[in-house]
Amino acid sequence: MNKFTIQKLELDKIISMLVKECSSSLGRELVNNLEPIADYETLIIWQKETTEGVNIRRFEPIIPLGGIIDIKNLIRKAKIGGILEPEEFLKIYDTLLASRKLKKFLGERKKQYSTPRMQWWAEQLTVLTDVEQEIQNTIANDGKVLDNASIALNQIRKKIVTLQNRIKEKLDNLVRSERSQKYLQEAIVTIRDERYVVPVKQEYRNKIPGIVHDQSSSGATLFIEPMSILSLNNDLKKYSLEEKEEITKILKELTEKINEYVEELETNQEVLAHIDFTFAKARFSEKINAIEPKIVTEKQISIIKGRHPLISKDEVVPLTITLGEEFDLLVITGPNTGGKTVTLKTVGLFVLMAQCGLHIPADNGSVIGIFPKIYADIGDEQSIEQSLSTFSSHMTNIINILEKADEDSLIFFDELGAGTDPSEGAALAISILETILKSRARSIATTHYSELKTFAFKEERVQNASVEFDIKTLRPTYRLLIGVPGKSNAFDIAQKLGLPQYIVDKGRKLISENEKDAAKLIQSLEINKLQSELNTKESEEKLQEIKSKLAQIEEEQLTIKTKEEDIVRKAEEKALEIIKEARKESEAIIKEIRSVAKEEFLKADNKAIELKKRLESKENNLTGNMLKGPKVAGKILKKLEIGDEVFVPKINQRAIVASLPNSNDELQVQVGVMKVNVKINELTAATKRAKADKTGIGKMMIDKSKTIKTELDFRGTRVEEALDLVDKYLDDAYLVGLAQVSLIHGKGEGILRNTIRDMLKMHPHVKTYRTGGFKEGGEGVTIVEFKK
């Protein structure tokens, strides 16, 4: 991508902001090397990864990104045979720990959101637990090799400690003795050249026999190793050398262990960098309130309420703009400081950001096409060193653009043709734009020239646009108006500021006929646009009024139809109430029987079931009579899905779709506890009009379907209570059409479980039952499947 264009469209500033969101130098390195790409498949993946990062942060904002360290140099050192230092092993350990935590974090996603791309990256991480453990067992947190790193090192360090204690003991006796204290500068023991010494006054040099290892800067103090500890110091020196050799051996072996996993560590580095980079994009997306744009292969742009990310959110004016669908070239006119350049930079920056895998600060529905070539001629490029004027500098850049422009190009021109004679500049600008059109590139150009407005109005695939100016406040509104060319406000502004009227009038007479025609054209277009908006608004209001009246008529017709069945339905509902009361009495009888004869509950339960069947039979007979009511009109159905609520006119009942239509247009619907085969043309849409069914089967079904759960937890209840609860729950669950339910009785001693399962063997609605699986609750749960 052209670096000049990236700078002019300010992508480099976005990159600088993105760098600050990274948690590691690995991520920052990726961001600094980030450039727009034009590969569709890769861009889709990049955008999805950014979206997944945003979703993860929304649900789990604390992400384990700590410990991601650049260890590429350490890996390289191990590969060429170098021995790693203890502190370097700690960096490798931190990276391994970070890899393990991120693999677990990203690999264990929750059900409320899906992150397949980030899970894929997690799978690329290699967890080296053995290496982690070996480093942890070898190197302490302060960077020292642990005593237990090897048996030999442990033994050597024990000998060193023993020798050090013996030396200190001898020297302590020396410095504490009254005879020696007058010879010493201080009663202390210190170390010089890794040997224990005492500070002796210069004048008493011969009073304490030994070897001088150092003296003070003044020469008044000599640091002497007494002869009494010379042999012990020699042994200590020997073991210290052995300690260093053993540590070197340990570090070499550990480095060789690291060298076995060089490829895995290098891959982990790349993956960790990409993960950090992805979450940096996600954090940046949140900060600028951005969305994932729709990436398309067509050379199109559609930005809905886009907000330039480098302008304060309190000042930015949302931009809505399209390009490449109805027109390929957009000519924007308007006053200075009206927002024309910001419009160019916003569109160009959004395309660059999208092609970097970044979200854009706009509304959902925004579309960004892929442009392999993006060029911009924006700003004052005057070069003093090259003795080029502003016009010359722009022309040099434009010539370079024209040589490369083709159908894959997106080009931005700011104040095209400016910097020279207006008439020549306008003619040159039109010629340039005609060349751009022939190349089939997409382009946006800003200008002050009226000739370009006329050009845009006459040419195909070219559209006018303008930045709005409020003549009352003498300020731009920064709103972009597509389809309306900008007009000159010079005379209006001058008059508003108090310029004498005769001067304004004289100035208007001096403008050319072409400019007058262009001004009239602009005024006419603006009037037409306003009139069109007004007509559209009136049409929408009238259409809404017609829809409202039509809905009112349909409601009145349905109300008339419904009233015809009120008398019959009320009588039937009263009968159903009688049946319900009878059922309540039967349930009370069942409860009484079970409480009186606990040991005979199975026989009593059979009698209760038989009684319930008789009541259900009566209820079904009455329901059958209810189903013979007259038809109720409704909307004809064109499309059905299983679970949809429909109305069956021939039986005057609502129903739930249980199967899709077959080749004969027949399907099955469920009405209460019954399943009925009907033709699709015998169904209508369920409306809100059937309010008369307040106490019937339909209401009962709806109420129960809203409240009934797929499980019943009755742990802690007595056997008699449990039997009543389960029996009623099974009836309700079967009534609303559940296929399977879970009975949670707990494990305990198994008495409650066995009693319930004995009842299930003889229950009329139960097809099969089984013990819950591992994830279903095991022995503490019984899974029940109903008969169809």
Automatic annotation (TrEMBL):
Alphabetized InterPro entries for the sequence: DNA_mismatch_repair_MutS_C, DNA_mismatch_repair_MutS_core, DNA_mismatch_repair_MutS_sf, MSSS, MutS, MutS2, P-loop_NTPase, Smr_dom
Domain Smr: 712-787
SUPFAM superfamilies reported in the protein's UniProt record: DNA repair protein MutS, domain III, P-loop containing nucleoside triphosphate hydrolases, SMR domain-like
One Pfam family this sequence matches: MSSS
Keywords: ATP-binding, Coiled coil, DNA-binding, Endonuclease, Hydrolase, Nuclease, Nucleotide-binding, RNA-binding, rRNA-binding
Coiled coil: 146-180, 244-271, 527-621
GO molecular function: ATP binding; ATP hydrolysis activity; ATP-dependent DNA damage sensor activity; endonuclease activity; mismatched DNA binding; ribosomal large subunit binding; rRNA binding
EC number: 3.1.-.-, 3.6.4.-
Gene Ontology biological process terms in this record: mismatch repair; negative regulation of DNA recombination; rescue of stalled ribosome
Domain of life: Bacteria
Binding site residues for ATP: 334-341
Signal peptide as annotated in the record: none
Subunit structure, interactors included: Homodimer. Binds to stalled ribosomes, contacting rRNA.
NCBIfam families: mutS2
Chain's role: Endonuclease that is involved in the suppression of homologous recombination and thus may have a key role in the control of bacterial genetic diversity.
Family: Belongs to the DNA mismatch repair MutS family. MutS2 subfamily.
Protein's name in the database: Endonuclease MutS2
